[in-house]
Structures are given as C-alpha cells and as structure tokens.
Amino acid sequence: MLGTQNNTVVDASASNDDAAAASNSVVLFGKYEILKLLGVGASGKVYHARRVDTGESVAIKAVSKRHLDGRDGYAYAAQIEREISIMRRMRHPHTVRLFEVLATKAKIYYVMEYAAGGELLRRVSADGRMTENLARRYFQQLISAVAYCHSHGVFHRDLKLENLLVDENMDLKVTDFGLSAGRSQVGSDGLLHTVCGTPAYVAPEILAKKGYRGVSVDIWSCGVILFTLVAGYLPFNDYNITLLYRKIYRGQFRYPKWVSSEFKHLVSRLLDRDPETRITIDEIMKDPWFCRGGYKYPTRVMPELDEDHVVVKDLNAFDLISFSSGFDISGLMTHSEYLNCVERFVSKEKPERILERVKGMVGKVERVVVRKDENAIIGVKLEGLDGNFVIAVRIYRLMSELVVIEVKRKEKKVGGGNFWRTLLRPLLLELALLHESAPK
C-alpha cells in the first residue's frame, strides 16, 4: 500500500528495508523492482533495479536515516541535502545522473542512472594496468566531468577509482558526490577547511589543515587516478597511515619503467605538492600527452553561470519535476529541534527588484545576514546569527512575464520564525499573484 506523507512518497509496507531489498520480488514504491545488491559503502547500499513501467535499469542508493536523530543529526541532514542538491544539477555525459529521491520511515533512496559496465577498475588488463592510450581516453572524460563540476561551483573532494564507473558504451561516469562542496562552503578566506577524502588520494594541502582550494585538490586526485591506471599501483601507499601521509606530503613516489616521458611530465604537474603551481584544468587540456589523438570537450548540457550578470533560468521540464515531492527533500530531513518548510510565490515582479526588496527587509532587523546561494542562478540565503533559522530564496522564470519565488526554510520550532512571519512572508505575499504553501 502506497501513500503520501508530508509530500514525500512513502512505502507504508517497507518495515524492513534491507530484508525487502534482498529479495528479487520486492517492488519499491510500486515503481522499482529490486534485482540485486551492487555494493555497500560508508554512506549506504546500492542496488540494481528496474522501472516497472518501462523496464529501464536504474541504480538505487539506500541511505539510513538513523543518524538524523543523533548528536550530529543536523549536520548529517545538511550533508544529504547538499549531495542531492548537487546531483540534481549534474547533467554531463560523464557524471551519473539523479532521477528521483524517495523515502520510507527508515531510509532515503536516490534513484540514479545505472552504469552497466560497473567500476572502471574492471577495464584494466590481466596485469592490473591500462595502456597509456586507453588511460588517456578515460582521463579525458574524467577531466571533462571535473571541469564541468568546477564551472558550476562544485568540488567533488573524493575522486578515486572506486567512484568511477563505466556505462554500456564503456564511457566514464563519475559518481558519489557525498563529500562534495559548493561555493557556499568556502570560507571568508576563499578556502575550504573540512578535512575529508580517501587517504591514498588526499592532497598534501588538506593534510596541512590550513585551508585548501577545491579545484586544486580535485586535480591532485585526478593525478593519483591517472598514475594508478597506467602504473597498476597507487603512487602513495602504505599500511601505516602516518607513513602514507608523510609520503604524500613529501611527494615521494616512483614511476614504472614502461611509462613515456610525456606521461611523467603531466603526472609530475598533477602531483605538484604546491597547489599554487599545480597544473590547472585549462593547462591539462593543452598538455601534449592529454591532447594526443585529438580531444574535444563534450557539449555542455547546462548553461554556464556568469557571475558578473544576473541570469534568470527558464524552467524546463526537469526543473518543474524537481519542484515535485520526488525532489523536495526538506520533509526527509526531520530533526527534533527544527521545522522545515517550502513555500512558492508566482509574481510579475522583475527578479532583480524582488532581491532588492528582500535584502531591504533584512536591513530592518539585527542579527540576520545575507549570503549568496550557490544552489541557485539567482537567489540568496538569509541566516539568523543566533542559529534560529536559514531561509533560501530562489527565483526561476516560469514564462516571459512570470517568475516563481521558491522559499525553503529551516527554523527552530521555538522562536525561529519571527522574521519570516512578521517581515519576509508579508512582503512576498504583497509581490505574489499566486501562492503555494507546503509546510514539512
């Protein structure tokens, strides 16, 4: 029996998700037949499934909600929201696409593109390595995906061979954005500060714990991946984690005797210990080894963001779907202390004028700051300095004369909604032609 609760699709019969998913006869939410378990990771289990209506294969990642009520529940919820928000935006030939997000009482399910070829490591030869020509092909696809992510303000931060898949055409697919960061996570010093990643792939500046640039650490990880594909072993490896980090920090590794001098030159620049002199994406794309045999960047499927101008995105079919319960995850992020809500307003006002008035409203109160919203082409985040609330205001063009103002709020159940109720909401109602409320 299926029902809806808080605008989230719920499978009321799924009392034991793991036991259910182990059976080939299980159909989740009446839509996806579970076929087999593909793998188990730190963040959840991944299954191969089939759409009941079309027969299309999908991958479903099941993430437990048990950590949401723990001491770090709010941070865990924020991480899940960030991962889903980032994956929604990834529409590139070499990144795994997210189709839908669903939930039961115990789990959150990511319905994603299925990579039929499995892990890239399966493409290596019997002696555990690739030819430089084959490795070049996959490295070109990896760099095109990473360049796309960076151009959209996304830093993966956990690039490794285990997170590279291939599809039925043997083309690369980057997956697992669980540790990814957006520009909103960048500090006032222009750097990221969260220590994360897989030890053998982590950049030396992360180990220094003085802040790092997301672009640079992703390039370092790409260097580790390229070396490993051709050499058949990791450049930095040791059972003793302290010795491993010492090797990384000192840049101590050896090339195998069979690699070309051009390959060595590129890898030496990818694994440059100094992030300031490390090779850039643009320089990689001009490198002789990289360009051998020809290289053409894939056609972008999303518009580039021009940060110097205000651009309002026209809503396409995918974006309209993203407003539905399948992508509205605020109801999944329940936390005992916080309330999550979504409201939308249709207006004839110009987006620039709407933002002006929102920012003007903030100026009337103390202890509320305005930040850029990295998940929107035009939008802002309003944050109470006392931690009582976060409000994301995003604007999308519905048609030539109409826009949708989407407001997502996360506020404390006690004392967190005064700014919204008394100032911001009345303003948006004044600007609105239509209004939809969806409290979570």
Automatic annotation (TrEMBL):
Keyword Kinase part of the UniProt annotation: yes
Domain NAF: 310-334
Binding site for ATP: 61
Protein known as: non-specific serine/threonine protein kinase
Keywords: ATP-binding, Kinase, Nucleotide-binding, Serine/threonine-protein kinase, Transferase
Annotated EC: 2.7.11.1
Cofactor dependence: Mn(2+)
Catalytic activity: L-seryl-[protein] + ATP = O-phospho-L-seryl-[protein] + ADP + H(+); L-threonyl-[protein] + ATP = O-phospho-L-threonyl-[protein] + ADP + H(+)
Span of domain Protein kinase: 32-290
InterPro entries xrefs: Kinase-like_dom_sf, NAF/FISL_domain, NAF_dom, Prot_kinase_dom, Protein_kinase_ATP_BS, Ser/Thr_kinase_AS
Organism for this UniProt entry: Stylosanthes scabra
Family annotation (SMART domains): S_TKc
Keyword match Nucleotide-binding: yes
Family of this protein: Belongs to the protein kinase superfamily. CAMK Ser/Thr protein kinase family. SNF1 subfamily.
SUPFAM superfamilies, alphabetized: Protein kinase-like (PK-like)
